[in-house]
Amino acid sequence: MSSTSDLATPGLHLLRERREHPVLLFVARRLAAAIATLLIVSILVFVGTEVLPGDAAGAVLGRNATPAQVEEMRALMGLDRPAPERYLDWLGGVLTGDLGNSAAGFAAGGESPIWDEISGKIANSFALAGITAALMIPLSLLLGIVAALRAGRALDHAISISSLAIISLPEFIIGSLLILVFFSWLDLLPPVSLIAPDTNPLSQPDVLVLPVLTLLGASLAASIRMVRAGMVEALSAEYVTMARLNGFRERMVVTRYALRNALAPSVQVLAQNIQYLVGGIVVTEYLFNYPGLGKELVDAVAIRDVREVQSVALLIAAFYIGLNIAADLLVVLLVPKLRTQR
Amino acid sequence: MKQRLLGALTPGAWVGLVVLVSIIGLAVLGPLFAPHPLDEPIGVPLTRPAQGALFGTDFLGRDVLSRTLWGGRSVLGLAGIATVLAYSVGMAVGLVAGYSRSLLDPLLMRASDVMLSFPALLFLLVLVTGAGSSKTVLVIGVALVQMPLVARIVRTATLEQSVRGFVEAAVARGEGAPAVVRREILPNILGPVTADIGLRFTYSIILVASVNFLGLGLQPPEADWALIISENRAGLTLNPYVILVPAALIASLTISVNVVGDAFARSLGISTARRRLVR
Amino acid sequence: MTEPALLVRALCIELDSGMPVVEDLDLDLRAGEVLGIVGESGSGKTTTALALLGFTRRGVRISSGTVEVEGSALTAGGERVVRALRGRLVSYVAQDPGAALNPSLRVSDLIGDMLRSHDAGEAAENRVLAALKGVNLPSEPEFARRFPHQLSGGQQQRVAIATALVCGAKVVVLDEPTTGLDVVTQARILSEIDRLRSEQRVAMVYVSHDLAVVSSIADRVSVMYAGRIIEEGPTAELVARPRHPYTRGLLSSVPDPVRPRRLHSIPGVSVGVDDRPPGCAFAPRCLQRTESPALSELPPLEQIGGDYRVRCFEWRRTPPLEVEEAVVAQTVERGRVLLAVESLEAGYGRRRAPELAVRGVSFGVAPGECLAIVGESGSGKTTLARCIAGLHPSRAGRVRLEGAELASSAAKRVREQRRRIQIVFQNPNESLNPRHRVGNAIARPARILRGLPAQEANKEAARLLGLVRLPLALADRFPGELSGGERQRVAIARALAAKPDLVICDEITSALDVSVQAAVLELLAELRAELGLALLFITHNFGVVASIADRMLVLESGSIREQGTVASVLSNPQDDYTRRLVAAAPRVVTSPSLPYLSEVE
Known about the structure:
heterotrimer, B: mainly alpha
């Protein structure tokens, strides 16, 4: 309840100044925070991957390697230098585009730049995530809003119960069940999404259907529940009641008074769930053998390719954080209060 | 409170509870009923259900039924321990951060922000790369991922309580921080905190299962529902049951945990729709 | 005879479960007339206010009766018909303008939406600006582009009023429109409402719990209790000579800022929607009831002379209002100083750039004295109270208890010091731990601060429950089972358990109904007399100050504007700010002019 006295007028002059570039200020602040976070994440990743003294060179060569061979490999991989030096070297490399060489490459007997290996796969992952996001946003908004408008009735129950069920399932379960249905039983779609390197995944759409559906599953369910909750809350706000008391048409009340205010929190939620796609993509790509960044990461972890894990993980984290900022920016643009305060 | 809890259980929630108890029973007691040992081939690989093999054989010719009966303990056990660990540490941290509001609070919040800005699965993979794929790593990793979330919720709840009149009255009486936290704050935050347990436990299960599925957690020849699904993917057409049975079990487990947790939260008057199922 | 602006006949509103909320309501209103509807919580006045627009909240429905505005019915016809009437014929102004205005729309859109919905014509900018001018807001495009959060509380409410009037509504329903505003803003809005009423000949229904405010603006007053009108008549008559015992009780509870008087509360507890007795709902609490028929039979709403109606069998026996002068407590020991505050400074924010809430405040409290600290929100009075209680760190200055300096935080104070100063908070929902039984809560200070063993402490708790006039059975209950007034009494009992010399009361009655407030104030006065307690009473209500305090000080933005005895400050304020506040303080008046408001501009 606002009880600011009329005796003190709000600082008009302050408002004018801040109104100049509040959005730019916000973006700058968030970017700075993001860079700081990324730096900390890079340190954590570096430390995390090198926690055990158990040695990357040994893992690459396998159990039968002689100590001499391991020493040689270590020198080759640059593991004989002290940790801080290696960290800075890696970080510097990342910033200049040189992600180092993969251990798989070393095992095969030569240098194999990581960037070359993954550049194609980045696009593939983008395609998968992009299509999923493009489908998720309108679907979750539509279903969430409809469920809220019909709250308590049959349609809402149906949507709520099915989303509660799906949201509990891990991606690989959803994916496996989908494969069982569409491949084993119906024989409509391929169970794996192997595509030749450097081919455009969009040129073979049926390869994408199941992975997209799998990724869509849990994130869509989560988004629907939250959009619904936000809309229900907006519909029960005092200003919505007031709009009805003013005799406004129901359509106007729902769109201009409820939806308009439910949109910002919904966008935030959707953005968060898009971030979760980044996490879910790893399992999905592995399940369908889809040649993307996620599968690359899993393969690298399996052979303990430290350098590759570090670089790929950092890339994915950067993308994740970038999405975060984009979402916050969108919310600030949508909510006037945040623009004029702070 | 017990009455409210039982009263809020819809027919759906009762079903969920029954399913949950059954699956936990199956996971814990399963190995006692397994007709065959989990790593001994009993027949031709990937044969359909037949006499002596209720669900057929897997890709190495082992009995699917037996391996499934053995396969629940790891998921449930590891997820359970990780959740308990996350709550123990998370609650302690959250209480201190929320109540003391000293330097510790922003420090902890920044730390949890950093942890939350990183996809959980990614974190686990990085950890496995560095520390190997043992059960300990899995438990600690999953606990570490959940801790910030628990700490956040506890901190927020603690903050909300600490400005209430009766807490300030206790402070004005000169009661020490441990007494105030124990008597005044803790009983009043149990509600929102426990409402969260269902979601946390579900998430722990999902994480453990996912890592096992990727082959980066439990290693063969161990039996784990997720691992079974993963190693038998290629043999889907020959014996679908080898995938279907563990998948159905995992699905039932996570759904029932979530349903029961949701009903429990609802009985306390708290909506779970807003809670993020962080991936 | 022109038809009445508003006509309500036999209106009955009930919950979906069938439980009645409002029963058998009749109202008449002519153009330009203001009807005040007064009631406490559980009276059904808010439900009635909404029903005048044909609206009910979820779970509530109008079961029978009619509401007509200028002949058009709002209780018949479908949603669409009623919707067309709302905003155009009858409109609504809500209690909390901050919550009632769409936060994502600019002022021009807020008013424009109303025009667009009901007027065939354009929502031209000039009409919007004219509407703003009509409520004394800046009629510039720059102002119209603001969002609600960029307006003060008073400005928000004016926008709401402008919206309600912009389509030429004939009847405006105002539901506690000034309750959330500070006293001066409240006075301004009231005079605004009055002016608009006479300029536009709009009929108004003013719903409120505050009899003083209602009496200053209404031509006629309806008093509601337990869902029915129990008395109705011209303001002057009703206020001077109430006929229904409840109305009389209500008027005896309303504090008067001008003439300090003794308050008399109404015995018993007000009824909620679910426990209305058969027969006269007030009968269980009524001091002048005879055995039957009131307990089983409902008294009809009788017309007694002209414009006056009463629902009571015994209205003839209702004694006239007594106005007793407040008795000055004899317990004050002049010459000694119990609490001394010296140049206290306290605030928020970082060390380098603190925002000071208390700036160099100095005063003293004598043993047994009641000192009132008065101020609007933001004046620093709560921060001051918390500093003295040891809950907020002070940046400079000292607080002394009988000469000994008190540490800034309670934890560092000596046990005796903590014992001698106790504090009671404003919000009855928050003052007690919902998980602890009442008896335990009261016993705790006795154990911690007086070192009593558990058994003794429990006996003390029982004794104290009696002292605050609560039944012993309450000791085993949880706070959730008690009413607001009961919880505050328990909070007081808990404070007394430490046998303090000084009790700080931080707005302890602000969240209570008027009659409950009177009861708590009565109790405090008795306790002071019995125990020789000193009180530091924080409030924003001058009427309450007049009823309970010996001396007062007025705080504004952290500094003392004026100090002195209550009598002198209220009758002859020296400081400008104080003068404005005193002039704006609402009091029960017998004619609906707003004499004290003309001083406020």
